[in-house]
Amino acid sequence: MSIELRKNFETELNSYLKENLTLTKDMKILKNRININKTGDVNAQGELSWGYLNNANGYFLSLSVDSIELNDFFNEIAPPYKSKLFTDKTFFMNTLMEKFKLFATKIGGTVDLPRNEEEISKTNEWIFTKIRDIYLPRIMNLIDLKSDAINDVIANPNYYAYPFLTILYIIKKNNIPLSDINMGFILSKKITGNKLFDKNLLDTYL
Fold this sequence. Notes:
Strands 1, 2, 3, 4, 5 and 6 form a six-stranded antiparallel beta sheet that branches. The chain has one domain. It is built from seven helices and six strands, in the order αββββαββααααα. By secondary structure, the protein is of the alpha+beta class. Helix 1 packs across helix 3 and helix 4 runs antiparallel to helix 5 (163-173). The mean pLDDT is 95. A hairpin with a 5-residue loop joins strand 2 and strand 3.
């Protein structure tokens, strides 16, 4: 029964997202995921997927970005510390990792598998809204190296391979005055990998 419910819901969710999400030419909705593949001036790939957790009988989201431009910068700088991530991605998170649950509808960190048409309708709208308003913008901010990504990194540095270097690169790319940046946050222990190295890099790179 649960497998049938899941199959039906996931089919309806995919259809709902295709009908309601505004997608660019670089985005494609596939089975249980949205792929973003940008080439040209921006060379980066992103993915937003939704998975089912058996022991919670509910869904969670996973997000990742692989930015060639940022990764080239990381390799050029060769920082004396490791990535914060256990993957080779530039950015990775899932909604089970959230300290403040923005996606979940219950304490366990998931959104319940809906059991009837009314619940399916409500769950579709809930997941769509969260993807549209929170998670897809977070991916696109990093893929496009927008200034808004700085606040994303500050809010959740552990989702980024090299949070300080990511911020530093975005500051320079967007010609953001340092007077517009909260340097206390940027040079905090949560953001930096090696404060002395990062502070020296800040002074020489910008």
